[in-house]
Amino acid sequence: MDSFEGIIEFIAVAESGGFSTAARQLGCSTSHVSRQVARLEERLGCALLARSTRQVSLTENGTAYYQHGKELIIGLQQANEQVSQQQFRLNGTLRVSAAGGFAEHHIAPALMTFAKDHPELTVEVDFNSQMANFVEDGIDFAIRYGELTDSSLVARKLVSRPMMAVASPEYLKQYGTPNHPRQLKNHSCIISNNDYWLFNVDGVQESLKVSGRWRSNNSNVVVDACERGLGVAYMPGSTFKDAVERGRLVAVLEPFWSKGASSWIVYQNRKFLPLRARQAIDYLMEHFADWDG
Question: Is the four-CA dihedral 189, 195, 200, 202 of positive or negative sign?
Fold first, then answer.
């Protein structure tokens, strides 16, 4: 059994690219990780890692050993979870990265219900618009809006989110109601992520540059600014649903709204995901299956 010592530490270093990062993930000291890997290399009689002052990389032997060792660890983890799944008591910490009003008003409440159903599970939600570093940050999965650019990640479509343009009744009374997207050049626009807005004009997607005197990447702030009469806003319709229903905002340019983008569940492309992550992802997919925004 001594021959198995150091494999977990080696796999962690190989995936994280450093001893200190691996130590943080494993919850132990850097010296322990370094010592375990060194002992493993000594038993094998070869170097698995090429060390320098700036980085750690796999040697040729290390690459081959990592591939086989990873399969071993995955098999052991799956065996452990298969036994645990029979009891179906999720534990540990589920770490989720999310951002935006949709995450705050819909994802977070759904995960609260999920956490309530699993009292031994701890849930951490990091509201950060930057793409998560799944390895270094220990993120199980992320909720992201729009196109996925990193092909090394897995993305599962959660919901479609068509766009909506709105303004306050007071703003429209003072400045008039735009009847065509091109008229927005004469209006103050509240800008969120970018100042190019896509509209469906005569069946063709048309990108229009807009300008205004209020900009924020927080959707709740955009809604508040719009309700206060600072201009026209254009974001996924679910963002404005409550304000429109209450009469605080009025929909405009409806015939030209874009289909918009989608919200996705994004996670690292690997064979193994912790049981807590798999169950949470399945729960969210089912929860939002009939979501109409």
Answer: positive
CATH of the domain at 233: 3.40.190.290
Question: Among the three residues 86, 112, 135, which one is the final residue of a domain in this structure?
Answer: 86
The residue written with tokens 């992802």 in the block is 281
In a domain, 138, yes or no: yes
- Please compute the mean of the pLDDT values over residues 95-108 and round it to a whole number: 88
Q: Residue 69: which domain range? A: 2-86
- The answer to whether residues 150 and 200 belong to one domain is no
pLDDT over threshold 70, residue 178: yes
| pLDDT of 68 strictly over 90 | no
Based on the domain organization, do 116 and 135 belong to the same domain?
Answer: yes
Q: Is the pLDDT of residue 188 over 80?
A: yes
For residue 50, which amino acid is it?
A: A
Is residue 292 in some structural domain? no
pTM for the full predicted model? 0.62
CB burial string 226-245: b at 16+ within 10 A, e below:
bbebbbbbbbbbbbbeebee
Contacts of 274 (CB under 8 A, 6+ apart): 81, 92, 94, 140
Residue 61 pLDDT grade (very low, low, confident, very high; cuts 50, 70, 90): very high
CATH number at residue 76: 1.10.10.10
pLDDT digits (tens, 9 = 90+) for 218-240: 888 999 999 999 999 999 998 99
